[in-house]
Specification:
Layout (H helix, E strand, L loop, with lengths): L1 E3 L4 E4 L9 H8 L5 H9 L3 E3 L2 E2 L11 E4 L19 E5 L3 E6 L16 H8 L23 E7 L2 H12 L4 E9 L6 E5 L2 E3 L7 E3 L8 E10 L2 E8 L6 H8 L13 H9 L7 E9 L6 E5 L4 H21 L1
Helix pairs in contact: 1-2
């Protein structure tokens, strides 16, 4: 038997529940709340049996009165609250979504920021998401940096999440990014095979690290030469944190507008063309559907906050060429 109040719920156990672990019992009876969150509630002292705190290992006896508090903020995903944030959904079925993330949005909560992230928006749109990566990363199979826009795959259940994760590890999911970088290239195509690890100087940054880094692979080709900058198609073979930004900066072609890995040249170009963030966009995904086996391909055009600066740069380049001629 159970009763509810504004912030919690009460259960009275019967003979059938005797011997069952309390976290398992509550997980079975509170369908919208994950077992890991229930365990957190128990650890925080939000679950009382007969008015007393218990551990998650406590085994029930007949007639136990269980009081659970702290449910009002819950969604079944830790302390992450669903938010009615507009999503740009490119594709959705019962197994997964493909969404277009806007720049300026964190993919998941981090560093005490539990609000206004993609996960908050996803939980509002779809309560049932994979928790394979944890409650605060519900559904998240791979990530984009806060100021990078473009395509992301979201898993609705653990089985699909595991399959997609394995596909990323096997490099069978093909990704294409569009980036605007500083400098001229001698060759139209390039390949970068340099390991990336956490910077020893600034732990918030990544760097090339031969001794401690993980292998990182990036291919690129010049899509358009624009004088002191180039528009690139970039094909990452791996998915290390900040990989494209670190690799391009290391070879002397930082992404225009990158405030962390850029230099004076890239910052100067960004200012002149009125670019407010790094020019990096996840434009294409190609993979086999993890359940149906169907070939899937998605594209996402450049958003307006990138097309405007790009057109200004193109106009400047054409003007300079005409002056020279």
């Amino acid at each position: 038997m159970s009763t509810k109040n504004a912030d919690g719920q009460n259960f009275l156990t019967d003979p059938a529940n005797a011997g069952q672990r309390i976290d398992k019992f509550l997980s079975d009876n509170l369908k919208d709340i994950s077992r890991s969150r229930i365990q957190k509630l128990i650890t925080r002292g939000e679950v009382l049996v007969g008015g007393k705190h218990v551990s998650k290992h406590y085994r029930l006896i007949e007639g136990d009165s269980i009081d659970i508090n702290g449910l009002a903020a819950g969604s079944g995903h830790g302390d992450i609250i669903p938010e009615a944030i507009e999503l740009s959904i490119i594709y959705e079925d019962e197994h997964m979504l493909v969404i277009s993330k806007r720049a300026g949005m964190l993919v998941h909560p981090a560093s005490g920021n539990n609000e206004h992230t993609l996960v908050n928006a996803l939980l509002y749109h779809c309560r049932d998401l994979s928790r394979l990566s944890g409650d605060d990363r519900a559904g998240i199979v791979h990530r984009l940096d806060k100021d990078t826009s473009g395509l992301l795959i979201v898993a609705k259940n653990e089985t699909v999440h595991a399959k997609l994760s394995d596909m990323f590890k096997q490099r069978s999911i093909k990704k294409t990014y569009i980036a605007l970088v500083a400098g001229k290239f001698e060759e139209e195509k390039g390949h970068i095979d340099l390991p990336i690890g956490r910077s020893r100087i600034d732990r918030k940054k990544m760097s090339i690290s031969v001794d401690r880094g993980r292998r990182a692979l990036t291919d690129f080709e010049v899509a358009q030469e624009l004088g002191r900058a180039n528009l690139l198609n970039i094909y990452p073979g791996t998915g290390r944190t900040h990989q494209i930004r670190v690799h391009m900066s290391y070879i002397g072609h930082p992404i225009i507008g990158d405030k962390i890995y850029g230099n004076n040249i890239s910052a100067g170009i960004a200012k002149k063309i009125e670019l407010k963030r790094q020019f990096l966009h996840a434009a294409k995904l190609k993979f086999v559907h993890p359940v149906s086996g169907k070939e899937m391909e998605f594209t996402d055009k450049l958003p307006e906050d990138l097309t405007g600066p790009l057109e200004r740069l193109r106009g400047e380049y054409v003007s300079q060429k005409q002056t020279i001629e």
